[in-house]
Amino acid sequence: MKKIEAIAEILGLLEEAGKGRDWIVQEIKKHKIGIRIKSDMNSVEILKTSPDIFVSHLLQALKNEGLADFHDIKTLTKTYQWFYTDIVGSANPTVLTKDQAQKVWALNELIGRTETFRNRDTKSDVMDITGDGMIIGFSDSPEKPLRLAIELHKIISRYNQSRKGKNKLSIRIGIDTGPVYFIKDLTGKDNFWGPGIIMARRVMDLARPMQILASARIAKDISKLSSDYKSIMHYIGDYKIKHGEKLSLYNIYGEGWGNKLSPEGKLDSKKIMEGPNRTKFLFPRVEVELEIKDVKTMRTHHTWIWYILNITEEPIEQVSYYLEGDVPKDFADLNVAIRDEQNRRLQVLSTHGKPYSKEFHVNLAKPLKLGQKGRFLKLEYDWEEPERNFVYNLATDCKKFKFLLLAPKGLEVKQRVLRIDPATREKRYASPPAEIKYYKDVTEMRWNKSNLRAYDSYRFEW
């Protein structure tokens, strides 16, 4: 294996193990490798300077062939029962900052008055302030996030009785269960992060004002505990979330609390079952390029190229797009531009969506006729990707798919590609692995694959 390929694989394995530049330096010192390390050198530059035999040693050790040297790697997770809440409308620019701060203070104060919060286990439960909200992980019972949600709703109801209009406090709550990793920050404090709180956030994001939503996995567990719990758990079906995934949800409400209305975004089971044979067109070739423009915010310029083929007798005049991002955005701030094979800018007819997702229709300059070749669409837009991953869902069968990530020099790229099973949503490493190349000012991550199937999903991580 070439040295640069070994380095690329090491970076990916280090990311999985929660290690970085400092750990590499420690290993160099431990093994008394005689190289000079400058303070401004990143992990890639240090490994390039290191002897080939040492790079090989690191790679083999990270593959568990030298596990004794890595006894301090902590990869075990802990599972919690999650309560995630935030304030509705806290980002409204018409609300004064002082008034927004007052609501944040009020929410924290009211949570602190609930019986469940006061009786929490301060040694094993975890908590974090999220700006305009709060995430709490209970280490023992799935009942606790539910009880906290109900108690908080009732307290807020009393709080709002003496307030009017914009001064009233409105929240949304998501409940889920799942694992997290604990990672020490620069001050040595344990921070938690992982699928547990990510999915709890996804559940909360779907909620309407003053609504409590729960994932099916925690709702089913709670409803089995008592008939009272079962009576307030209302199954509302599957909902689409980020990266093409779906969540089965329960709406939780009772007399005088909760919100009976179903959230927007429910999946139509009939449409899901139609399958690729019912589509009007094929994308025989798809190219996706992501160029990171700002490392601090992860502002990324996205380019999608669809080579499109009509497979019906009826000419196609419109095409639909669905976009998702990691941060809330208005459509106008995405800088969306769509052009065709003759570089004609196409008109966006209608847009709708939520802060984290946008759907819109585009009118073709010329109708696409049956079997007509040489037609393609080029979409460009800007959206931050702070979670450093991107999921692409294939709408049709695809003969050739190309992915390219362009990252500024100095940004470590872990070059991971995962295939998401369309039925179980289970993630597995995709084959072949991504290729990575280092140039003077940019790092390129490439992944090409042929003969992909409709509804396949791939997650690209960097």
Description:
The protein is 25% helix and 37% strand. The chain folds into three domains: 3-70, no CATH class; 78-269, 2-Layer Sandwich (Alpha-Beta Plaits); 275-461, Immunoglobulin-like. The strands form four sheets. Strands 1, 2, 3, 4, 5, 6, 7 and 8 form an eight-stranded mixed sheet that branches. Strands 12-15-10-9-17-21-20 form a seven-stranded mixed sheet. A four-stranded antiparallel sheet has the order 16-22-18-19, with no helix packed on it. A hairpin with a 3-residue loop joins strand 2 and strand 3. Residues 65-74 and 269-278 have low confidence and may be disordered. It has 462 residues and is of the alpha+beta class. The chain contains eleven helices and 22 strands.
What secondary-structure arrangement, pairings included, does this model have?
Layout: H1 3-17, H2 21-30, H3 43-49, H4 52-65, E1 78-87, H5 97-113, H6 115-118, E2 126-129, E3 133-138, H7 143-160, E4 171-184, E5 190-193, H8 195-206, E6 211-215, H9 216-223, H10 227-232, E7 233-240, E8 246-252, H11 269-274, E9 281-294, E10 299-310, E11 316-324, E12 337-340, E13 347-354, E14 357-368, E15 376-384, E16 389-393, E17 398-408, E18 416-420, E19 427-429, E20 435-438, E21 442-452, E22 457-461
Parallel strand pairs: 4-6, 9-17
Antiparallel strand pairs: 1-3, 1-4, 2-3, 4-5, 6-8, 7-8, 9-10, 10-15, 11-14, 12-15, 13-14, 16-22, 17-21, 18-19, 18-22, 20-21
Helix pairs in contact: 1-3, 1-4, 5-7
